[in-house]
Amino acid sequence: xxxxxxxxxxxxxxxxxxxxxxxxxxxxxxxxxxxxxxxxxxxxxxxxxxxxxxxxxxxxxxxxxxxxxxxxxxxxxxxxxxxxxxxxxxxxxxxxxxxxxxxxxxxxxxxxxxxxxxxxxxxxxxxxxxxxxxxxxxxxxxxxxxxxxxxxxxxxxxxxxxxxxxxxxxxxxxxxxxxxxxxxxxxxxxxxxxxxxxxxxxxxxxxxxxxxxxxxxxxxxxxxxxxxxxxxxxxxxxxxxxxxxxxxxxxxxxxxxxxxxxxxxxxxxxxxxxxxxxxxxxxxxxxxxxxxxxxxxxxxxxxxxxxxxxxxxxxxxxxxxxxxxxxxxxxxxxx
Length: 335
What we know:
Layout: H1 2-28, H2 37-40, E1 45-48, H3 62-72, E2 86-89, E3 94-99, E4 112-117, H4 128-131, H5 139-179, H6 186-224, E5 231-234, H7 236-261, H8 268-271
């Protein structure tokens, strides 16, 4: 029964840890399969370029205007340098496509048709200059100082965010493996609690970084590219999964901590208790200066009064009288 109770105590944090691990894996699956509509909805950042407007009035550099017009009128699909209707930025890469609708007046409410996904890259960051093929142009004048500075910060922070994710998912996997040892002792629970703390901290750091980073990038995009009719937004689905992973991870850590101080799993017999709940083979330590009843020789072992012991029975009385002889202590009889 003690082992069963220990198992029940470990089962809850183990399930919470596995759920957190599953959510982290789901976050990394965004942008991995362009044919999967569910995975295509898992993105951190979205740029809607379906209504992009490029002309001589809003672009002061003719070279950039010509290049953007060329890309905007090119055929999407196999052309990776064309300007698509939208761009989704995930953890490893970005995906792009067009709106699957004939109603151009309501493109925001149409279904996304992903037609291209870039290769997976560690420490990925979305660079519109490379994506739109503006490397050989004066793109810094197109985007302005605010967006260029924001992209530099975005690149540095995206690197840290990726490192935080890798550490978080590795620590969570280690937490699951070490958690099996918690079934046998509270020392195993303590070790799992330490690993869980590391995992929870990095999951929280990853979630905070991703939320703040892409919220800031969205605001910068909307401000700097508003005159080109380019709109940006944050992906809510992936953030919901990410913060649920944070919640389950911290809840698991609390239960691991509880299992390290409680739910020892030791049975009463191991502790020295008998089957009837009494101590077996161990005596309770008595406090000093306490009264303890002493057994009376007249009452016996049962503590009840019994017949008085007979002393000097059948003793001859003639030896009790006075004698004429002197007292001799070693004399036992008359000669």
